[in-house]
Design brief:
Chain lengths: 111, 115
């Protein structure tokens, strides 16, 4: 079955810096890769996703890249702000199979 | 749309008691998932349903845990008897059928404390 690894487990940056979170997956059949943000005490919420027919997707300060050959995908946050502080989860899935989540990255943005 | 609705938001119970968590998925979503989240173990998938049918319950930790989905708009997760190590936040999520097209929408969660 699918296995998703996520790094780093914690990431501290200064406000205005960029942050990058990386995930690798094992099942070459996976073709859907969402990212979730979970603020303290809140539910995980979908912030961006990418499908296997696309190499990169951007939404304002957030971007996701996908390398299917290497089986890894990354979340990039530019010009970080304190409100970006949260736990971020990557996931991978295909067809009617369940999504498999990474273990999460705790991002702390210091003013 | 009201989103995925879970109840109760908080539950405190004594060890040995039965606990029932409830979830109403988004209307039209055919897949429903139950997750457990703790600091130590992260986000764990317990069980998921497609069209009200349990597809994978390999994440259910013990026979003390059971889940049902009697119709497309309601699911329950039951723990009987409860133990302190069951203390966690339990999330329900739903998705249109086919995870390759859409992500999951999570409910607000139930914070369970077993004393």
């Amino acid at each position: 079955g699918e296995n998703v690894e996520q790094h780093p487990s914690t990431l501290s940056v200064q406000e205005g810096d960029s942050a990058v979170i990386k995930c690798t997956y094992s099942d070459s059949a996976s073709n859907y890769f969402p990212w979730y943000k979970q603020e303290l005490g809140k539910r995980p919420q979908l912030i961006i996703d990418i499908r296997s027919n696309v190499g990169e997707k951007k939404d304002q300060r957030i971007a996701v890249t996908l390398n299917k050959t290497a089986k890894h995908f990354s979340l990039h946050i530019t010009e970080t702000q304190p409100e970006d502080s949260a736990v971020y989860f990557c996931a991978a899935g295909t067809g009617f199979q369940k999504l498999v989540f990474g273990t999460g990255t705790r991002l702390l943005v210091s003013p | 749309d009201a989103g995925v609705i879970q109840s109760p938001r908080h539950e405190v119970t004594e060890m040995g008691q039965e606990v029932t968590l409830r979830c109403k998925p988004i209307s039209g979503h055919n897949s429903l998932f139950w997750y457990r989240q703790t600091m130590m173990r992260g986000l764990e998938l317990l069980i998921y349903f497609n069209n009200n049918v349990p597809i994978d319950d390999s994440g259910m930790p013990e026979d003390r845990f059971s889940a049902k989905m009697p119709n497309a708009s309601f699911s329950t997760l039951k723990i009987q008897p409860s133990e302190p190590r069951d203390s966690a936040v339990y999330f329900c999520a739903s998705s249109p059928q086919g995870t390759a097209n859409y992500g999951y929408t999570f409910g607000s969660g139930t914070r369970l404390t077993v004393v």
